[in-house]
Structures are given as C-alpha cells and as structure tokens.
Design a protein that fits this description.
Keywords: Signal. InterPro entries: Spore_coat_component, Spore_coat_U/FanG. It comes from Antarcticimicrobium sediminis. Residues 1-31 form the signal peptide. This protein has a domain at 48-149 and 164-168. 9% of the residues lie in helices and 35% in strands. It is built from 1 helix and 10 strands, in the order E-E-H-E-E-E-E-E-E-E-E. The protein has one helix at 10-24; strands at residues 4-5, 8-9, 48-53, 66-76, 81-87, 98-101, 106-113, 122-123, 136-146, 164-169. The strands form 3 sheets. The chain has a 5-stranded antiparallel β-sheet, with no helix packed on it. A 3-stranded antiparallel β-sheet has the order 8-5-10, with no helix packed on it. A two-stranded antiparallel ribbon has the order 1-2. The relative contact order is 0.23.
C-alpha cells in the first residue's frame, strides 16, 4: 500500500528528507591550536613609608603665643639605611620663615623636634634611629610654636603644608 500526498509518494518524501538533512549537517571541522607564552614578573623593592599627625594649634588668641605637637613616623622594610629626613619650608614660606595663611594673611610659626629648642630647618634624620637590618619603625614628635604679637592677628582659619622627604638606601 502506497500513500500519496499529492505529487510525492512516501518513498520520494523519505528521499527528499534524507537529502535535505544531509545538506544541513555541518561539515567536519578541522581544529587548529596555537600556543603563546604569558610572562609574569615582579620586582621586590626596598621601601620606607612616612605617616604624619598634624601640628594642630586649634583655636588661638589673636595676640598670645600658642604651641602644639604633631609627629612624623617612618617605617622601613629589611636592610634599608636612612639617609635623610627633610622638612621643607612649607607652601607659604617667605625669606626662610614658615607661615600659615588664610589665603591673604599670614601667621609665622616654627617647628622643632620635641625636646630641642632649635627650629627645624632641613634634615632631621638624627632624630630617628633607623639603621641596620630592618624591618623597623621610629617616630619623632614635632613641636610647633606661634609667638605672641603686639597687634591682633586677623581672625580666620590658617594652614600650611610641609613636605617631608625621606631618603634611604637599600642594600
């Protein structure tokens, strides 16, 4: 018994489906493989870090003297040798005098390593004991002083930024 579905017989239809399926099957793919190299590198460096706490005078009288203490802390990893710790004159320095500013007016001040009456002017590395085979850390208190004045200072908020530069050498 033959089934007929119009112009195609069941035998013809099977052949047509088989041919269509064969044409739609993907061709066999040939895989290719390429390889490369990913380099992973690192360089371990000697390192020292510097942290500071502010010399914050707080609210001061328009004419009286004021003092405050901040600190500089230095920590180094193994075998670094400290060469220098230098404080610059600040962002408002004028003729060698450190000054805080409110943008227009200035209040002169001094900094000294705690326990010393000599104003900090340059290298203070002798205040730190960072030598030999670290790791190690040390800190120094920094005293700030504002002198009293005869005429009143202009009211306002004053500040200055001191850059602390630490120079060290690695083995």
């Amino acid at each position: 018994m033959t089934f007929s579905t119009g112009p195609f017989s069941l035998g013809t239809l099977s052949t047509a489906v088989f041919l269509t399926a064969t044409v739609l099957l993907p061709a066999t793919a040939h895989a290719a493989v390429e390889e490369g190299t990913l380099n992973v590198t690192a360089t371990v460096i000697a390192q020292c870090t510097v942290t500071t706490s502010a010399v914050a005078f707080g609210e001061i009288s328009p004419t009286q003297a004021a003092s405050a203490t901040g600190s500089i802390s230095i920590s180094c990893d193994a075998d670094n040798t400290l060469s220098s710790v230098v404080l610059d004159g600040g962002s408002n320095e004028s003729a060698g005098t450190r000054q805080m500013s409110d943008g227009t007016n200035y209040i002169p001040y001094t900094l000294a390593v705690s326990g010393s009456s000599v104003a900090v002017d340059g290298d203070i590395s002798s205040s730190f004991t960072l030598t030999g085979g670290g790791p190690y850390a040390d800190s120094a208190d920094i005293d700030g002083a504002i002198a009293s004045v005869g005429s009143a200072r202009v009211l306002g908020s004053y500040s200055d930024d001191i850059t602390v530069t630490v120079t060290y050498s690695a083995p």
